[in-house]
Amino acid sequence: MIQKKICMVGPVSVGKTSLVARYVHSLFSDKYLSTVGVKIDKKQLRLDDTDLILMLWDLAGDDDFQRLNLTYLRGAAGYLLVADGSRSSSLDQAVEIQARIATALGPIPFLLALNKADLAAEWEIPESRIDALKSREWMVRRTSAKEGWGVNEIFQNLARRILGRSNSGAEHPSSFHE
Amino acid sequence: MNEAITAAVVRGLGLAIFQRDNRGRLRLACQAPGWFRALWPQAAAPRAILPPGISPFLENFLVDAAAAWKTPGSASIHSGLWIEHDPAGEEHHLQAAAFRTDGRAILLIESPKRGYEERTLLVQKAHELALAYEKLQRAEQALACEKRLLEQRVRERTATLSQTNAALKREIAIRRRFAERLQGIHELDKAILAAQSPEAIAQVALRRLRHLLPYRQATLVELDAERHHATVLASIQGRRISGGGGWPLSHAQLRQCRALQSGRLQQIRNQPNLYTPPASRIAERRRIWPLIVDVPLIAGETLVGILNLATDAPVCFTAEHQEIAQEVAAQLAVTLREARLFAEVATGREQLRALSSRLVDVQEAERRFLAHELHDEIGQVLTGLKLTLEMVRKPGTRSRDIILTEAVGMVDDLMQRVRQLSLDLRPQMLDDLGLMPALDWLFSRFQKQAGLRVHFQHTPLKGRLPPQLETAVFRIVQEALTNVVRHADVSEATVRLWRDNHDRTLGVQVHDSGAGFDVDQVLNARASSGLAGMRERAVLLGGQFILDSIPKTGTRLTVLLPLAAAAPKIPIRRRKTT
């Protein structure tokens, strides 16, 4: 059984904990509870022919009160960079966090999840911005922890990337809604 | 502090303390607290070794701890909070610290439940505040954006309203000007309708026009297209109004009239004014006007006059002024024509009254003449004849033959006098032989009686003319030659008689090179019932009466009579050879 450490990183209130809860426990709560410290969950899955255990490190959101402790990413096979699609500022922060991680730890597989895709009316990330990130070889996915859209896919895609297997290319964002 | 107190403090704080042994293992150095026993009962025994892999988080921290322990004098390091679940599913919040003390490497793990809750609450509130602040900032940005958009829309709307307002003001100004213009034209209309004569109309119109049009000098010219004659009804310059005066139109004026016949006003720049009367001062006639506007006065399809406006400034006559001028001109044309017709009717009535009076006078004169002729001439001869014939019955007088011879002579004289009287009243040959023999006889009479030599020029008449036409021509020639004898002070005159090529008109003209006279003065004075009679005869037959006369130059009287409505021609009777 292969075990891989995956960290959930990103600004506060973007839905990192909700994504893990939806993925591991198939649960979702509208009530916002800040994550303090680190919570580790385990998810076992079979990816193609490989049994895999994902150790999901849900890290507190990075802000002025709680700076991301980069030592938590030590030994991580990859990380899920999460931003809130209804707050464009969260994407700016996520990009900045990714730069810090890359500087400190070098290239680690990651995937950008633009969460809260269910809030279509409040969506602030223009397609051009997503295209610009994709042009930097970023994998970008829209997700909704509330609706479950794209949740399994992002973890599986990241796992495939970690395992060095071919990932599906850029998915059409709307595919999560269908 | 003794060991008992230290142990009590450690227990009280719920700490799990591990000391690293010389083999690098972490051995429990105190009694395991309850939370530790719940989480990792396998490592809770006294002096138990912390098994590797017991906690992924702790294992990660121990990497940093090992580095810290290797560095003498290094400060303690802290793991930060993390969460572990015991087999019963209860959540434990932990944090670890690593440090060296007295050469011993120590790992300290605690479960700061109260501290965790407080921190969670604090972080929760801080995040909520931060999110609310961010939301507020976004709302503020949105509001600022909305404000900018609103301000932009207000600016645009204000600009639109300003433009609309300006357009409305312009529209109001235009309508006000239009109303003033209508009012002005209405007042002018009222004024000219109240005026009686063409001259009064012209004066009133030019005075009123001053409020409607910019001009330095305005002149209202009445045109007689047939006579090629212009008359100034009124002219205004400043406050001075003048009028009167007529003159034959020059070639330039005729050209201008033809251009105006189109109905469009003409603008002439930097030229003398064509309609300055010839009698004006030379300087006035030669004055160069920056702009002259000639507005045609057209009644029906006839150019009856010109409203002549001269301005000092070349650009002051706008399109609106042109409209006003043309409206006024249209009204003036109709009013002037009506006034002229009224005046003509009045003149006609006056002439008719004069003619009636003259007819009575002539009748009385004829009767007096006849009475005189019958009493003084015929009566005397008849008395003499009676006395002569009575002598035949008286014995002892002259022989009968002599008496009868005297009586026959007296009868011959009587017949001659009657014939003369008859010819004076109306030559019988006009009815019997026609116009040409009658005219020949008339001319010879004028030669014999008045010493006037008449040169007669005519085209062939090809037959008799209707009697009323022959009478009219004979009487007109007779009256005209009488006038020549009375007033022209000449011994020669020319009479021309012709038919036009289409046999539509019969023309007769009497011309002399004598004293001449001022036609307007004589006609307006209505002193000449002879002229009026001639004109009446022409008008009654639907003809035209044209009189040209220049003092000290001569007079030319022309009458054109239509042949179309005349009675069938009577073949001319050739004059008997005398």
Number of strands of chain B: 17
Which percent bin holds the helix content of chain A? Answer: 25-40%
Please give the oligomerization state of what you see: heterodimer
Question: Uncertain spans of chain A, ≥5 residues at pLDDT below 50?
Answer: 166-178
**In the CATH hierarchy, what is the class of the domain at 427-578 in chain B?**
Alpha Beta
The global form of chain B is: rod-shaped
Q: Approximately what portion of the residues of chain B adopt beta-strand conformation? A: 15-25%
Helix content of chain B: 40-55%
The name of the CATH superfamily of the domain at 427-578 in chain B reads Histidine kinase-like ATPase, C-terminal domain
* CATH-derived architecture of the domain at 427-578 in chain B: 2-Layer Sandwich
State the low-pLDDT regions of chain B, or none: 566-578
CATH architecture of chain A: 3-Layer(aba) Sandwich
Characterise the protein shown here.
- The complex is a heterodimer of chains A (about 180) and B (about 575).
- With about 180 residues, chain A is of the alpha/beta class.
- Helix content of chain A is about 30%, strand content about 25%.
- Chain A is built from four helices and six strands; from the N terminus they run βαβββαβαβα.
- Chain A has helices at about 15-25, 90-105, 125-135, 150-165; strands at about 1-10, 40-45, 50-60, 80-85, 110-115, 140.
- In chain A, strand 5 (about 110-115), helix 3 (about 125-135) and strand 6 form a beta-alpha-beta unit.
- Chain B has about 575 residues and is α+β, with helices and mostly antiparallel strands.
- Among the domains of chain B are: about 5-110, PAS domain (Beta-Lactamase); about 425-578, Histidine kinase-like ATPase, C-terminal domain (Heat Shock Protein 90), CATH 3.30.565.10.
- Chain B is about 50% helix and about 20% strand.
- Chain B has helices at about 5-15, 35-40, 55-70, 115-195, 200-210, 250-260, 280-285, 320-390, 400-425, 430, 435-450, 465-490, 520-525, 530-540, and strands at about 15-20, 25-30, 75-85, 90-100, 105-110, 215-225, 230-235, 240, 245-250, 265-270, 290-300, 300-310, 455-460, 490-500, 505-510, 545-550, 555-560.
- In chain B, strand 14 and strand 15 (about 505-510) form a beta hairpin.
- The radius of gyration of chain B is 66 Å and the shape is rod-shaped.
- Chain B starts with a helix and ends in a 16-residue tail after the last strand.
- At the A-B interface, strand 2 of A face helix 3, strand 3 and helix 4 of B.
- Strand 2 (about 40-45) of chain A pairs parallel with strand 3 of chain B.
